[in-house]
């Protein structure tokens, strides 16, 4: 049934273009991290914020396909992030890691809610995307 043989030479242009695209994002990522390190003046907190925002962006790209998710997830995420920043800058000597932990917990709860409440079309009807 599947008699098509792939030779290793077919993947080299794809691998090369993907590697160049990936290398192009390294300076951008390093620049964003350096900005966050200076902005928050706490490297651990800045890296944790960067990681959570990146993970949320990956979730939104991969899982937030239904219309309610596309409409509600970014707005709720932004509201929670703004509340975290308001607390962070209102009380600079306060409990920063506790505030981050509460924001992290709220983002995880929001993510799990959208995963359970609005399942992907592929999970409901696998015969549609297999054709």
What do these coordinates show?
With 131 residues, the chain is mainly α. The chain is 80% helix and 0% strand.
**What is the first-to-last residue Cα distance?**
16 Å
Binned, the helix content reads over 70%
Can you tell me the residue ranges where pLDDT is under 50 for at least 5 consecutive residues? none
The radius of gyration over CA amounts to 20 Å
Strand content: under 5%
Write a short abstract of this structure:
This protein has 131 residues and is mainly alpha-helical. It has 6 helices and no strands.
List the helices and strands and how they pair.
Layout: H1 12-40, H2 43-63, H3 67-90, H4 96-117, H5 121-124, H6 126-130
Helix pairs in contact: 1-2, 2-4, 3-4
């Amino acid at each position: 049934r599947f008699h098509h043989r792939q030779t290793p030479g077919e993947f080299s242009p794809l691998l090369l273009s993907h590697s160049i695209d990936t290398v192009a994002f390294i300076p951008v990522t390093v620049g964003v991290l350096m900005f966050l390190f200076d902005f928050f003046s706490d490297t651990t907190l800045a890296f944790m914020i960067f990681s959570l925002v990146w993970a949320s962006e990956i979730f939104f790209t991969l899982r937030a396909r239904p219309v309610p998710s596309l409409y509600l997830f970014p707005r709720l995420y932004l509201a929670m992030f703004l509340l975290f920043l308001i607390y962070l800058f209102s009380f600079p000597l306060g409990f920063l890691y506790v505030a981050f932990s509460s924001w992290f917990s709220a983002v995880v709860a929001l993510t799990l809610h959208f995963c359970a409440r609005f399942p992907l079309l592929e999970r409901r009807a696998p015969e549609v995307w297999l054709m």
